[in-house]
Amino acid sequence: MEYDRDTSPPFDPNSSNLTTTTPNSSPPDFATDNMSSSMYHSIFHATEQRLNQARMVFEHQQLCDHYDLCISPLKEFTGEMETLRRENADLRLANSALLRLFSSFDYLNKEIASAGFSPKSVMDPKQLGNVKNISVPTTHYVKANQTNTDTDLIRRRLEKREEEEKAAEMEMYNQGMWKTEICNKWEQTGTCPYGVNCQFAHGITELRPVMRHPKYKTQLCRMVLYGHKCPYGHRCHFRHSLNHQDRLLLPR
Question: Is 203 found in the same domain as 228?
Answer without folding.
Answer: no
